[in-house]
Amino acid sequence: MTSTLRTCLLASTMLVAGIAAPAHAQQQSAPASESQAESTSEIVVTGSRIVRADLELASPVTVIGQQELEFRQPGTADDILRTLPGVRPSIGAGVNNGSDGSSTVDLRGIGAQRTLVLLDGRRQVPYGLDGLTDTNNIPLALLQRIEVLTGGASSTYGADAVAGVVNFITRRDFSGLDASASYRVSERGDSQRFKADLVVGGNFSEGRGNVVLSVGYTKADPLLHLDRPISAVPISSTNGQFLGATAAQVTIFASPANSALGIGPSTLGAVVNPTTGLLQPATAADTYNTNIGTYFQTPLDRINAYSAAHYEINDNIEFYGTAQFTRNQIATQLASSGTFGNTYQLSLNNPYLPSGIRNQLCSARSISAANCAAAAAVQGGPGTPGYIEVPVIAQRRFTEYGPRLNVFESQMFQVQGGFRGEIVSGLNYDISAQYGETTQNQTRGNWGSFSKVQQALRAYNTPTGVRCVDTNNNCVPLNLFGPNGSITQQQLAFIDLDAIINRKVTQTVVTGSVSGDLFASPLATNKIAFAVGGEYRKLTAASQPDGPSQIQGEVLGTGARTPPDVGRYSVKEVFGELIAPLIEDKPFFYKLTVEAGIRYSDYTTTGGSTTWKAGGTWEPYQGFKFRGSYQVAVRSPNIQELYQSPVQGLGNLTVDPCQGAVSGGLAQLCIATGAPANTIGSIPAPTSGQINNTTSGNRELDVERAKTWTLGGVFTPAAVKGFSLTFDYFNIRVRDAITQPAQSDILNGCYSSSLNPGFANNAFCALIGRNPLTGSLNGAGETPGVILSYSNLGVIETAGIELGVNQSIRLSDLGINDGGTITASFNGTRLSYYHFQATPNAINRNCTGYYSAGGCTNPRAKYRWNGRLTYGRELFDISLLWTHISQVSLEPFLATRLPGDVPQPGGPNPSTILERFRSIPTFDYFDLSARVSPTKVFDLTLTVNNLFDKKPPLVGAGVGGTAFNSGNTFPTIYDPIGRSFTIGARLKF
């Protein structure tokens, strides 16, 4: 923790406690044993700013209560959220290649940027330039419940609540001490996680105030790909073969073509024959095992502190405040660095270049034998008579380096203070201000420098040994052509480069509202309730990489520069909300209530826009309620979508349309998109199943508009004790969506004979840039790959049904007098459809029940549910959780533009994927929890996750996006750890 943040945290905590706790604060009225007393002075209802105890809304809300949290014993909020049926797993511990160190949530699968995360109804300062909240910052120990509101809440909270809200609600008026600790370990002895939390709080001033402080520490060890058989080696999704070896050797792609080396066409390049010393065609066994050193589950080291206080200054004024600090350290690891697909100038007098290979390179470049021999003997560099160098892609993994490290250390703090109270009877006010900062330091270790590799390759023999042409920085010549282990520590030390990227996000929010009651309808008793108010938000975000990171391709393994980015915006908003009980206690109208809300927002980036909602509930008889809502949401682009500079990343692709033998119009398109003509027939397959993608922001973006509606019911018949049933249909349509085209849309739009029957050099082809040496889609800065830019041309549509059932039965009601209770609960989602169309010319992709590398990425199961069965007594509970994920398949090659339209080629062609990797069967997981309370102040809980040790599905390394298709499976959805045990202890006074 930096001294500045430590000072800010201490100051803010003292401010909260000092204002709320006058000199007589030690006089507590609540007994010490009362560890959790809930106050009715503050009522948090997710989806509304109206403060009233009887408030019921038309939008569906899923509640994860404290008992569920205790049974699951999660290490982070993501451990709970990603298993919920209405949530699509997003970035979290299961993402290694593609993680930014955060953990985010994606309701309904329409994008994490359309889900708003709140703590006690308040915004959290975002993690990065994309405006998303890192759920690793949530203080789990202090949580009372989690409420997930789906169907949209933009009119209540703001534009980014298109899909809904995840609201973490803390325990209020906590008095006492609550200490807990848990330890998890897999059956195989790995994936350890330790978590400890302490919560202390107390009331003062005869119950007029309360102060609570929560501190916690979490440490989770990583799970390596090599620790599980399924992920020990990358497996080709196209042929099922092992993609790599543990040793490293150079793989050469010559220019103008490998065929000129005399080895024939080879899409994997050429390797050294140890017997002849000559190059020969490479096979899959000659490629590197890219799963060495990489993570299935990333490690976490977290310290968090949260304090809250409130104090009733008088009957009409209450001060409240919070202070929060979290330090997270997340690490990711990638396979050893190397030269990758970069083009280097190789001098023919390189002291480590075998003579046989030198002669082959000279032949390929039409350099005479005499000149080749003379060049080999030159003692000097460029400008020396007889000196010759040739461009070569010489791929060599620096296994001597160890894995590439990515360490993300973030520090977040946020303070908030406000006043609330009653203006007159039935009229309340609430005004508050908050400020938060997130700073992030990303350190890349063991990556290496492109320019220093090039400097070290320009070397020659001298009578006293080898030396670099350019001796600056104590250059050490690099032996790129030796066997595994031949690169010395001195050579590595010279090319070493540890790059650093700093990011900072700040958020200021000022909110004020007035709520209260108006009058009662002539046919109702309860009064019409309203809330009106305004909000000001200012968000700034900046990313500042070090000098080497800003140079195109300088940091090996990144493929491109990391530019400095900065952006800011502010928004002024006014909002209003109305909930009107129209009819109560009348025939067929036990309750009829309507609600409405509106918000006008004025962004400095996109100007003014209006969001509104309308809905209602009808309860013809007590216990039988129908509900529905309709919302129009308008979301403005975030800083990343607006201001991100062009930057290269990696996407998954198993088969390049231009690789191998191509001819005719397709061959001409390959040339038109950047492949040299002499590479046709020998263009290599994507390296490690990945290609370059170039993304960038768009400052001309406008708002996107969404319409969401829900229709359902809640049934709690009095005749059936302890029973409740909810069902809701949801429908979301986002137009003018801020999206990027799918990679496969561009590739198919250019190269597919069905979409482009004349093989015209069309607009899709203009978004493809190939390696100017090999014609591949891999390489450093000179290879943009597939260009993916943001636009307002997208359309997203999804719909489905949610069902929730709960039944609690006291065994005494069945004549069994053991004091026990049986509780059964079920929460499930049926996805009716999910459609995504990036541009009007792109495929309207149907991802319902599918996964793919190019468009649908990780699976979207049609059916997902959680079911829990619990037997509980006063001092003992045992509970079984059932998690179901229905069968999913590879996205079909034929996708429809709209239901009923003529099929059009769309997704990846399944014929390129092995049949056994084209589908994943239904998966069912069972978790068992048991809790015992030997005394009233002490609990012991044992949780067995993945009770039957179900293995994740094997689908290979090329059927999903780079971030989610990891270790030959999808670890954010299917458990890679296996059976694990968590033991937890809790002491409370």
Structure overview:
Helix 5 packs across helix 6 (369-377). This protein is 9% helix and 43% strand. The chain is mainly β and 989 residues long. The chain has 11 helices and 48 strands. The strands form 10 sheets. The protein has a 22-stranded antiparallel barrel. A hairpin with a 6-residue loop joins strand 13 and strand 14.
Any chance you could write out the topology, listing elements then pairs?
Elements: H1 3-20, E1 61-65, H2 66-72, H3 77-81, E2 87-88, E3 106-107, E4 115-119, E5 122-123, E6 143-150, H4 154-157, E7 164-170, E8 176-186, E9 193-204, E10 209-220, E11 223-224, E12 251-253, E13 270-272, E14 279-281, E15 295-297, E16 300-314, E17 317-334, E18 344-347, H5 355-364, H6 369-377, E19 389-395, E20 404-424, E21 427-445, H7 450-457, E22 459-462, E23 465-468, H8 489-495, E24 499-520, E25 527-545, E26 565-586, E27 589-603, E28 607-621, E29 624-635, H9 639-643, E30 647-652, H10 664-672, E31 690-696, E32 704-715, E33 723-739, H11 743-751, E34 768-769, E35 785-789, E36 791-810, E37 821-837, E38 845-846, E39 850-851, E40 863-873, E41 876-885, E42 888-890, E43 894-895, E44 904-905, E45 919-920, E46 923-935, E47 938-945, E48 980-988
Parallel strand pairs: 4-7, 31-35, 39-42
Antiparallel strand pairs: 1-6, 2-3, 4-5, 6-7, 8-9, 8-48, 9-10, 10-16, 11-15, 12-19, 13-14, 16-17, 17-20, 18-19, 20-21, 21-24, 22-23, 24-25, 25-26, 26-27, 27-28, 28-29, 29-32, 30-31, 32-33, 33-36, 34-35, 36-37, 37-38, 37-40, 40-41, 41-46, 42-45, 43-44, 46-47, 47-48
Helix pairs in contact: 5-6
